[in-house]
Amino acid sequence: QVQLVESGGGLVQAGGSLKLSCAASGGTFTNYAMAWFRQAPGKEREFVGGISWTGTKKAYADSVKDRFTIFRDNGKNTVRLQMNNLKPEDTAVYYCAGEVFGDGTSGRRYGSWGQGTQVTVSS
Q1: What's the rounded Cα separation, in Å, for the pair 123 and 105?
Q2: How far apart are the first and last CA of the chain?
Q3: Are 31 and 51 in contact (CB under 8 A)?
Q4: Beta strand pairing status for 3-7 and 32-39?
Q5: What's the pLDDT at 107?
Q6: Helix (H, G, I), strand (E, B), or coil: what is residue 58?
Q7: What is the pLDDT of residues 100-111, one digit of tens each?
C-alpha cells in the first residue's frame, strides 16, 4: 500500500484560497486513483473530489464543483487540491486516499489513507 501524507491546511478567511498537497511513497503512484475526502466535527466523512489512475477522469462533489480542482503530478508522486472561494462550511479535516487502478469516484473502496490536514475557514 502506498503511504500518504497531506499538507497545506490552515486558517483562511471566507472567499480565500488554499492548496492542499498529498505526497505518496512506497508504491507505484501511477497505478493509483487518488481522492480527497473531508470530515467536519459531528459529521460523516464525505467525498470531495477524485482523479482516476490514468488522470483522464475527475469527479467532484456538487458542493465544491466549480470551486475546487484536483490534479496529479506523477513526476512528484503528488496529488493536489486547489480550493478557491472557500466557505465556512468547507471547514473540516481533509484526507487524501488512494485506490489501485480506480476511477477516482466517490463509491470506490480506497485502501490507502493519509492522516489528514485541518482546513478552517472563518466568516
Answers
A1: 30
A2: 39
A3: no
A4: unpaired
A5: 83
A6: strand
A7: 998 989 888 899
